[in-house]
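RECORD CONTENTS
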Amino acid sequence: MDLGEFEADNSVSCRLASAIPDVCKTEDCCLGIDEAGRGPVLGPMVYGICFCPVAKKEDLKDLKVADSKTLTEAQREDLFRKLDEAKSFVGWALQILSPNTISTSMLQRSKYNLNALSHDAAIGLVQFALDSGVQLKEVFVDTVGPAEKYQEKLSQRFPGVEVTVRPKADSLFPIVSAASICAKVARDHSVKDWNFPEDLGEVDADYGSGYPNDPKTKAWLLKELDPVFGYPQFVRFSWSTTQTLLDSKAVTVHWDDDEEDGEKAAARQNNTSMLSYFKAGSKTSAQQSNTHQTHRFFTERRLQSLATL
């Protein structure tokens, strides 16, 4: 699987897709949706769809697709290769949600939780298939949240398409199993070959599965914690695992907001308020650049100083 487009900038989300089989544009099709990487604190979450003509369901069964969680990495790779080779009647598409996208979405002022993010990714992929000319008749989805509400939401969004939302759909419907395999293979590749844009030098790549309860992941998070800047964008800052480590191990930061007087709180503890770093000074930007070298944390993220808030 070629993830070059995502690897070129893994700070943002990316959509990858196969060619659309001609038969999918002329015959009624079924489509499955599943995700990989919902729980890990490291790496992206990947939503995948797979589709084929309803009349070709038995052909899909012959490929012996199964829930990706029940397969070894080698088995998933082999099945993805078979799915990709069956391009005369099988198509797929992926929405790779970067850790940075997940974190900034969940931590923004207007709350946007993981379920909403997942629903929108799934809806976007179904719409992509329709816009690409796929004649969708049936959609099968592994549930996120209450199955009945999710099914009603999708049915209203896509009238004329028969939607089925079921727990464990990846083990019930081969077309969902196929989507599960596509998503899992993409996530495995992205995590294994993660490109750290922060230019951290030699980074320990032995970070395990990325799940919070994995001992290797726990050890890696402790080792790579920067007391000031936290973690690279490979880590989901919106996870409680990350926030707990930052609260206990990193430098204390006082934020100014409407609920607490950060300036006074910082003064009481003989610290500097975070907002003070953003206040306009008497020096011009040119003067500041001559006397102060910007930390690479800001330059690597293309952040610039503002004269006013």
Remarks:
- The two ends are 44 Å apart (CA to CA).
